[in-house]
Write a structure and sequence with these properties.
5-stranded parallel beta sheet; 5 strands; 144 residues; 47% helix; globular; 6 helices; Ribose 5-phosphate Isomerase B, Chain: A; single chain; alpha/beta
């Protein structure tokens, strides 16, 4: 199951992503926002981050206006590796080399078509492991 959340700046793109996940038969849990009224991205980053870090959800997608604020906030949650991706190659490498467990997107940065391609790549790409596992472990050790 994928955890998904956005603030008001990502609300419209979140609806597009959820409709896309529905079309693919991918299960998700919506952590809000529930409207386009002004809201704080950190609240949704925390909720999605905790769901992913705890194992309640296997991955997450977070969306705000640029993706920057929500990704910074998500990476404050212990166990989260949130990658802000604005292109397909970064989405692939975030999974293959960095084992990112949350994807961040910016509604004001990406068109819907590209955003959905990025989502597809993120959710379908696995972690390569090997030498990358050592590096990810070192990054995760920084939390200690």
């Amino acid at each position: 199951m994928i955890a998904i959340g956005s603030d008001h700046g990502g609300f419209k793109l979140k609806a597009e992503v959820m409709a896309h996940l529905d079309s693919l038969g991918v299960e998700y849990r919506d952590f809000g926002a529930k409207s386009s009224l002004s809201s704080d991205y950190a609240d949704y980053a925390e909720a999605v981050g905790k769901a992913v870090a705890s194992g309640e959800c296997e991955a997450g997608i977070l969306i705000c206006g640029t993706g920057i604020g929500i990704s910074i906030a998500a990476n404050k949650v212990r166990g989260v590796r949130c990658a802000l991706c604005n292109d397909c190659f970064s989405a692939e490498m975030s999974r293959r080399h960095n084992n990112a467990n949350i994807l961040a997107l910016g509604e004001r940065v990406l068109g819907v078509g590209l955003a959905l391609r990025i989502v597809d790549i993120f959710i379908s790409t696995g972690f390569d492991g090997g030498r990358h596992e050592r590096r990810v472990n070192k990054v995760m050790a920084l939390e200690q």
